[in-house]
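go over whats below:
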Amino acid sequence: MFSPQLQQKIDALKILRNPIKLGSIDFASPLLLAPMSAICHFPFRLLMEELGAGGTVSELISCHGINYKNEKTRQMLRIHPKEKHVGIQLFGEDTESMARAAEVAQEYKPKFIDINMGCPVRKVVTKGGGSALLKDTKKLSGFFSGIKKTIDIPLTIKIRTGWDADTINASEIANMAFNEGIEFVAIHGRTRTQQYKGEANWDLLEDVAKKAPLPIIGNGDLHSAPLTQKRMMSTSCQALMLGRGPLRDPFIFLNSFLENPNESPFTPEDYLEIIHVYYQLLTEYSDQERTHLIQMRKMIVWFVAGFDGVSEFRGVIHQTKDLADVFKLTEDFLLGLNARNQGLKKVDLDRPFMMGGHG
């Protein structure tokens, strides 16, 4: 997948990781890729796994789309043969529909099925899915058991700390999940009403992790390797989930294990290589040229964030309508940085990346 030179760098850092077991599910490290809408299809998941993610989760997938046999939705269920540690995340509001969809999703051979109980987006919440499920905990035991009994693989959930500041119930839900045989709970450290504003409440996440009878995965604001390493060395959570961070630093799952995570060995030329690898995976996933253009422009702009001169480059890329031109501009930009030894990103660790959402 990668050149021998890049693979050597990757392998040297992969050996610093320790595999973990969350419930009955094995992962290659305690740093996992969070599910992100319109991002976590198999091209991005596999790239991140090859670049050190201990495991990944699909983008949220509608149970109704699966049950209606919607072609676009079924496409989202696809898992690449090389993916080793992947779960499929479903969203929906009623037990029967979710159970039927979970049966279908299981046929694609994920390691586990995950229930989305954290999405704050209005069109999901108003139908009763996503974080709306946090509002009425009395229904959750039947919801969990009804889905779990239809599948033969582990069931997990991803939640928020609560619906709002007055209804913080992550600890209660974790206990209910344990009683129904859920393998682990991933918790984003914000309420639904916070959306992605403010800061993730890590004090609460740590408290829940210390008391919970099952593994807790902490998620929120881990948008750089130094921040991730600092949290990894002190957390009571059994694992951490990274969302926005890998979009700005696709090597974050490796850089977080460096003795000094600010001294990444990866150069702009390495970024160019993984951009091309991502494109090859994208062509396996979709044959739509328009999709290729949109996805590549989006991913390239995220990957190069923080490099010198990126503002001007970003403006040009967004106006470029031809994919060959996008690649030529990207190559000139990154190889130019390489030639000038400008390979270090300038990142403000106090400023979150992509405040609009994702992980």
